[in-house]
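User: Please predict structures.

Assistant: First:
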Amino acid sequence: MKDLFGKAILDYQTNNNPEDLITETSISEEDEMSVAYLFRSYDEMPKIEQKALQLAKGKVLDVGCGAGSHSLTLQNDRNLDVTSIDISEKAIQACTLRGLKQAKVQDLMTLENEKFDTIIVLMNGPGICGKLKNIPAFLLKLKSLLNPGGQILMDSSDIIYMFDEDEDGGKWIPSENEYYGETIFNITYKGEKEAPLDWLFLDYNTLQNAAFANGLQCELILEGEHYDYLAKLSI
């Protein structure tokens, strides 16, 4: 991995001529994404993210924190004890420069010996699993990091609407995927291309079934305008 996402974040934070990220997925055309969006304030966040931050309590873990905007809101506006983790070294550098006190380069799956009251996995949390088959291990890992009475706040989208319908109202879904929410994500930044990344979108029913199968309760908290939703998982 060239960590182009992290490079863009650090360029923006340090005023190093940041450019738009060019993103493209296996089911959508090329799109430009302003890096500034990752640095949004609470007021600029979608309702789903605002709701998750309102519900956060106690000791918080922010998984895949990116530029750290969610963590900053919780640390500075809510005075919560937040640990922010990301696998991108450059993103974590930017988070530290922005004033996050506990930002570290860390893969969720190797995090040990810590417990949290709230775990937030926002901006399509399940995405990092890549494939549906990886969801059980992901949920069990999150579960193992919860204190009694703890909660996991996660958002995702049901992307079934992106597939064409046939005359009967059925959907044309490519057969090479085990599950229609499995996509391939490509990023280009300053003319460099990142290695293609498996990226997962999870519809709520599939998440709920996976949660129940792995000893977690799952509650639909909020639905957005674009087939997106916020879910709360607990033991």
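Second:
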Amino acid sequence: MLNFDQDRFLKTETGAVKTNAEIQSVLDRELDSVDNIYFIGSGGVGILFDSTVEFARSRSAFPFHRVIAAEFMLQPNKTFSNKSLVVIPSLSGTTKETLELVKYCEEHDVRTLALVGSPDTPLQKEATYAIYNDVLDDTSSENYYLQGLMIVLYVMLKKGEIDQAQYDSYISDFEKLPEALLAAKKQAEPIGEAFANEHKETPYHIITGAGDSFAEAYYYGMCILEEMQWIKTRPVQAADFFHGTLELIEKGVSVIIMKGEDKSRSLSDRVERFVPKFTDQVTVIDTKAYDLPGISENTREIISSVVLATVLERFSAHLEVVRDHPLTFRRYYKKMEY
């Protein structure tokens, strides 16, 4: 596979699943005194936890929230208190807003759990608890999606919303997931290459998805295509597609449809039926198309965002080559004060 380190990928995603023991330890200490859990990040890594909160929304009565760090510190939620636990994901562990957030939480006597992807960072040192797994940009989405799921699933177990057998089944499948994701990457390789060659000059994409999968549509548009490739995008929730965005569809407009395996899939199906009538540029990325050997149907239903992230990384790897635009190149981000 193009520019792909198989051993590093497997090490990272295996490491992500192994952090479950630390997640359990933190929640065992804190859950009895916690009324709600906030996932608060900045930029792309924060967006990933939209999938976590959407997963929990229809499956758990426990209050989970995802907010943006900079805005939250200006206008905190009314439910935020010293009975909140704040989970702070950060790949670098140095992001200005997240470090300010830790200090803000300390001032309000709120415990924090940092999920960091780099060793010995300021965030890791300042947070109440810190869990480290060695992560780089191209492996980060799967890592954070999995950690978010493991947090919610353990809360659901402790609150009696799932039983031990259900919980163990999910975690057992997660342990097999790195190898299954590797198989999905191999399957996606020619698809990603073909997409990159077809769309290397495409200036604009409409990207849609629903349910647990919309976070990846939003993340891929904003953080990969816009930030890393300078391609304009319009991420739109599939349920909202027919409340405005449909009027932009005409011949030559690129539409990327992300389809997962939860109950919201029918919303993406509706978009898929509509857009080919009016444009010839339709890309469907469907997690059902990927085999995922050894993973049960019940687990497949909750990991659509993880699978989409793995598949789309192959699209990105080819795009940066055919466009001669490295994914690491920025004009403004962390280059200047703003």
